[in-house]
Amino acid sequence: MTRPEVTLHIGDVHVTRDPVMVKTVVGSCIAVCLFDPVTRVGGMNHFMLPAPAHGDDGGFDRARFGIHAMDLLIGGMQKLGGDRRRLQAKVFGGGHVLMLPQHAESVPERNIRFIEEFMAAEAIPVLSRDLGGYLPRRVHFCTETGKVYVKRLGQQTLRQTRTEEKEHLRSLGRSARAGEVTLFNA
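^ thats the sequence. predicted structure below, dont judge the formating
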């Protein structure tokens, strides 16, 4: 079956009822795939950090932060008929790709801790996860089935992912493009 494809970057959220292959590559970032098996509404986000720094609301690019990206993803699912009580999650990322010292407050560790605590607090079951490690991952999510394909990537992609994430971290202090929620068949 041929289906449209959508590629997400840091700060993007995509929700749909249509059969779509949503793709992304995550390093220290997190990608969350949500699926309602009854309505077949599916969506994915891709965020960089758990929350804005104290006193920062995230500005125009709020979806780069997990707390906002999760609200946008869940809200988008509900707008298209998804029921919060039926949502199922699959989570990926949190790899140590930035070559920074590994400790409890590193970006990947904070991201992993955030998404695990968020899912537990919201009582959203996590059916599968691939978190941590040292390599980026390519994630492909079939929105009509909830099936996810994950591939750990090699050194070439590691260098590219590291460069992109470092640039994005530097841009957090500057205005960036707005994170979007894209709804289809609304």
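Helices lie at 66-79, 107-122, 155-171.
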